[in-house]
Input
Amino acid sequence: SDSAPTTSSGDVVTVFHDPENFNVKHPLAHTWTLWFTKPPSGKQDWNELLKEVISFNSVEEFWGIYNNITPSSELAPKSDYHLFKQGVRPEWEDPQNKHGGRWSYTFKQRQANDDIWLHVLLAAIGEQLEDDNDNEVMGVVINIRKAFYRVGLWTRSAGTKANPAKQGQPQRTPQESQAILMKIGQRFKAVLTVQDKEVIEFMGHSDSANAGSTRAKAKYSA
Amino acid sequence: DTTKNIEPAQPTAGMQSLKSARFLEIKNDQFSYPDGFKSPNPALNQTGKRVGKEYDMDFLLQFQSVFKEKPTVDWDLRVKETLGEGDSSGRQN
Output
């Protein structure tokens, strides 16, 4: 392995040119952290069950991870995968999630569809869920449960007055924020390939926390 | 599992390439993808601070069968420690 053969692309060798000896990788717009919630086996705190797996910032790294980790369809009930922007814990209590909410859809099947979760991951890392200056997407999550699985998308705001401004950006009105959240919800629904007649729902985290996640009333739907 | 590694695992060529590779700059780097591979959707990546860092699904899916290297030499152990054995799934590899 002295010198790489000269290619028609000059000295740029992608993983498609040579998967073993490439010299460029595809950057992501953000560094993402994958988290895993382990099913409880005793009486641990939820916090002890939530574990950071790895952080990454290139397309190639993503695939190395995805191709070598348990697919969602093989996870035991009460497991979750969370893919969040680095520095944000996938919890309501994280200061960056405090005023936020989530879009979610429950699939009434026991076994997760790996393609659906993969497409959600790709839409997140490829920046297909929001426009450049929206700064709403915090992360995506899949909850595996006994009789269903749920896929969610967490946002920074919930269209309320407590509307956190991202550094260096003007504060949005609740209406502006709602319009962005609706657009994100529609894109998320398309990625999930949920039928038009089905509904995905948005809830603010504080509403979920106060009412109990199953009883809280959805704020918006798409 | 009857074979136990005695020597420490060595990183593969692919792992080393991933580590040493620089970030591609779609705007400045002159190159083309090999025949049969699509570029990222040109409608993306036009403006803004995410320039060159937006990828449509079809582009990203092309990597699925191309890059399968584990992130680190101790990856399997790390996955086992983090994800555990599951409770009663009985899944073994």
